[in-house]
Amino acid sequence: MSKQSGFNAVALQNFDPQAFLDRVWQREALLIKDALPNFQCPIDGDELAGLACEDDVDSRIVIEKDGAWELRNGPFKEADFSTLPASKWTLLVQSVDHYLPELAELLAHFRFIPRWRTEDIMVSYACDGGNVGPHYDQYDVFLVQGSGRRRWKVGGHCSAHTPLASQAGLRLLEDFSVEQEYLLDAGDVLYVPPGVAHWGIAEGDDCITLSVGFRAPSEASLLSDYGDDIASFLDESIRYQDPKLDAKAHPAEISADVRQHVKSLILQHIDNDAHLGRWFGEMMTRVPDQENFVDDSLSLEEFLLALTDGEPLQLRLGARLAFDDDYLFADGLAFPYPQDQRDDVKALCEIECGITIDIAHRLSQDMMYALFCNGTLCFYDDTQD
């Protein structure tokens, strides 16, 4: 058995992480009552609406009327909220943990799942009866009740062949049969695995749900991305060469020998553990619109001078970190590190959200600067509070 790192997630109450992983994870839904006792939601409806008005924030509103659903996409204006009906609407905002440190701290409770699988925290605000219809997701999600109450109806497992009723850009289930039903109060958590049908309906106003989602790339995208990565390193001058040919063979036939030859050409490039490890770490920590975070405003000398002057470093909200025996993976890039810094790299990957960090100072100056230029580390800005 391998030696444990000693890192432990912040425990949920009434919950055994290993038993969950062994018996429930990616198999069936599970309600964890009072998982976060005395939970105080770190965001309210007005703050969420304010975020939904920002140009770079992904937001939407779903309205139900007489069994039909309408989808409106943001960014919104303040006046848009005054025109909403009195009930049965929901505001959803993606990646709120990238903007609100108090919300990002919630992720510490779910670190029994690999960090590199974490996607983001979506926040939904609903008034009485608000819902987004019966549906299923293709990823794991923990639905944390932040405030108010929501009744969740859970159905069976769905597949690509499950009939859908497309409504205004929403992929809703044509038929929905309830197998389990739960009423969640603040601090309750409902886990829903990929492909399981579910339907949450707010009971009363000020219903806020925090959806902790986990990324799950399709096998098709894995193969496509890895193939593109391999191809980017190959020399175009290296061309296909024939195996031993038979002059008597039919000129239009593609023989089994040729197919086997092509298969061996492909496998010799794919079967490379070092290449696979670097690519997978980069892909699973990749951040959409990464170019928005790149910071080349300081030279190395200016960066080191700022450190010397006591400027505190912090981890960018939403930064994605992972590591293996050779690399620190940060926001889609692989940074090689010497083995004597392994413990420091591991410690960096245990840091949560945007808190000011000292551990980075134990890394090499070149790595700190590279992480700064990559936008993973940044200098603390006290104007954000």
UniProtKB/TrEMBL annotation:
It comes from Zhongshania arctica. Its cofactor is Fe(2+). The keyword Metal-binding applies. Residues 102-231 form the JmjC domain. It comes from the Bacteria. This is Cupin domain-containing protein. Keywords: Dioxygenase, Iron, Metal-binding, Oxidoreductase. PROSITE patterns: JMJC. InterPro entries: JmjC_dom, NO66-like, ROXA-like_wH.
